[in-house]
Structures are given as structure tokens and as C-alpha cells.
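Lecture notes, part 5. Sequence design as translation. It can be helpful to think of inverse folding as translation between two languages: the language of shapes and the language of residues. The source text, in C-alpha cells, appears below.
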């Protein structure tokens, strides 16, 4: 069984969540900080969507490269490399954006925090409801008895 359908569902729900965060964050940012708050909320939402996309894309790519072997070095290397890239890009963006006059840092921060928590909730809900087995290649004693009965 492949994780790709689950990742597609996570992307779909993540997109809906991002749209909701963009709308609510923009309205709240506009009310409390004017146009700068609106821009900051939209930038925070875009950052969250890009990072969610990088994670999903890295898992899909790693699954294809590792040919479904989730315990291969290639799989872990690609996924961990993508997370490292995300961390570096996030730090660079924060350093570049923190002193900009057209950014309201509190709105940006709160939007990113809400988006991260929201995407974690989406991940948990989708994976919990996926009914994807997390054990494979297991032979139960009842399976061996049923096979022996059929052979007789």
C-alpha cells in the first residue's frame, strides 16, 4: 500500500486550512494592524503552505526513489534533507523579514504558529483515519493453520 493517497488528502485539507487561515488572518491583521497586518498574514500563510508542500513532495520523491522501501537510506536522506532545507529557509526568511517596515511581526508570527498547529492537526486526523496498516510481511499463527488446512 502506498502513502501517496494519504499525502494527497493531507495536501487537499492543508489547502483548505491555508485558505481559511489566509482569510481569517488577513481580516484580523487588517483590523489590528492595517494593510501591513494583511500583508503579514498572507506572507505567513504562504510560508506555511510552501513548507507543507516541501514536506509532502519530499516524501513522495523519497518513496519513488526508494521504490517503496521506507527503511532505506535514500528515503531517510531525502526526507531529512528536505527538513534541513526547510529549517534553513525558515531561518533565512525570519532574519530577512524581521526588520522590514512592511511586516507586522506579531501578525506574521501568529499566522505561522496557527498554520503549523493546524497542519499538524490535519496530519494527525488524516493519518488516524487512513486505516493504513503499519505492519507488513507478518505471518500470524492462525494464517499458518489456515494455509495448512487448505493444503490438505
Amino acid at each position: 500500500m502506498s502513502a501517496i493517497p494519504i499525502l494527497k488528502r493531507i495536501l487537499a485539507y492543508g489547502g483548505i486550512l491555508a485558505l481559511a487561515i489566509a482569510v481569517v488572518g488577513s481580516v484580523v491583521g487588517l483590523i489590528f494592524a492595517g494593510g501591513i497586518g494583511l500583508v503579514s498574514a498572507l506572507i505567513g500563510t504562504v510560508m506555511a503552505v510552501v513548507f507543507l508542500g516541501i514536506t509532502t513532495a519530499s516524501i513522495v520523491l523519497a518513496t519513488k526513489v526508494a521504490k517503496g522501501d521506507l527503511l532505506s537510506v535514500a528515503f531517510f536522506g531525502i526526507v531529512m534533507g528536505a527538513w534541513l532545507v526547510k529549517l534553513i529557509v525558515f531561518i533565512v526568511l525570519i532574519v530577512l523579514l524581521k526588520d522590514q517596515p512592511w511586516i507586522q511581526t506579531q501578525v506574521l508570527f501568529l499566522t505561522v504558529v496557527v498554520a503549523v498547529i493546524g497542519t499538524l492537526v490535519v496530519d494527525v486526523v488524516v493519518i488516524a483515519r487512513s486505516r493504513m496498516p503499519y505492519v507488513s510481511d507478518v505471518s500470524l499463527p492462525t494464517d499458518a493453520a489456515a494455509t495448512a488446512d487448505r493444503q490438505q
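The translated text above is only one of many valid answers, since several sequences can fold into similar shapes. The chain has a mean pLDDT of 84.
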